[in-house]
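Notebook entry, structure prediction.
Reason for the run: the old model in the group folder had no record of what sequence produced it. Starting over properly, with the input documented here first.
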Amino acid sequence: MQHTDKYQLNLIEASDTFSPEALNENAQKLEQAISAEAAAQDQARAADIAALDQRLQVFEAKHIAVGTYYPQTDIDVDLGFAPSCVVILALGPNNCCGILLRDRPHSSGKITSNGFHIQSGGPSSMIGYCNLSYGYIAFD
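New structure, fully documented this time:
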């Protein structure tokens, strides 16, 4: 009896007497190969899921908040987290804007443990004086 080159499956020749052994042996070899391939795919899938889960945990640990405020007086914006950066833009014709950074003081405001504080301190306060609404995006 001859065998295939790659997988060594039995090749039944015309002169061979019929015996189910050769066919059963081929079926067992195929089942083992398919089972091994399925196990390898299961391991790869589990590794992919674990890697995705890890990336998701990193992503979910980040925070972002978007909103508006109107600074008639000093204002504390509670975000529920301490942002590393807050970008503030005036919502109107004036070009008032500003950025608050966690580790860099700003004359018009500061990052707090749960959001940010804006001082409405007159013309030198570019993110709290333009007498209009402000939009912000905060993230860590």
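Summary: The helical segments are 20-61.
The old model has been moved to the deprecated folder.
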